[in-house]
Request: fold
Amino acid sequence: MSPVAHTYRPTIGLTTQTLHSIDGIPPALPSSWVMNQRYFHAATAAGAVPWMIPLLDDDLTTLRAIYERLDGVLIPGGVDINPAEYGEAVRPECGNLDPARDLVELQLVRWAIEEGKPVLGLCRGLQIINVSQGGTMWQDLASQNPAFHKHDFFPTAGFERDHLAHEVNVVPGTRLSHILESTRCPVNSMHHQGIKTMGANLVVSATADDGLIEAIETTGEPFCVGVQWHPEVFEMSDPHTRDLFGAFIDAAINWAANNAALSATPRVGVGD
Reply:
């Protein structure tokens, strides 16, 4: 752990989504940017100061200014990525889309990977990391490749968010394997899409028994990890999940220290 970990809380940006992209939201409601509170609570419990990022897809100057104030970027779960972002037409099985969110998240992740700023992607977040580096997606696992097992254990179908749907095989020697300290890990599963081809400079760090890629990371030292499951559900109950968030937060602290953010900008530390 960083020597400043107990005195500095890194600022972690969490992206949002357009309210009307969510199933069942009446179009007559005012347009809003929203995000599940679980992600913010998980980041806070790990020692971060969460920052809600607006979808300023038409104002990249302001988006960049927000990004420069962050020590790390967390991409939460959400609706499907527009297949146009990876060069495909939309299939009928593809769900709701949020183009503004796509543009903002892809830009943030590209900036972060290029500059070595820590990134953690959860479910859709893993997919954004992959697409940002030129990877492609299965738009619907069940209809496009029946060899895949069931992965869409959605709450709307009666499953609890903490339902452990299957296990993943963690690749030895990866950053994720060092964090989880295990070669098998039970996970929840709330997605109908998945990685088809990997983006550049990414490696697989976990797979399901059916071969579906369940976790990826970048090569080299900078922290960039994406998992297909929703660990924020287990942050308070599972030590390995706490270790995942903790490793991300430690990387953000180190980023801040290495980039002189601690001395250049007044911050409020834990216990101040």
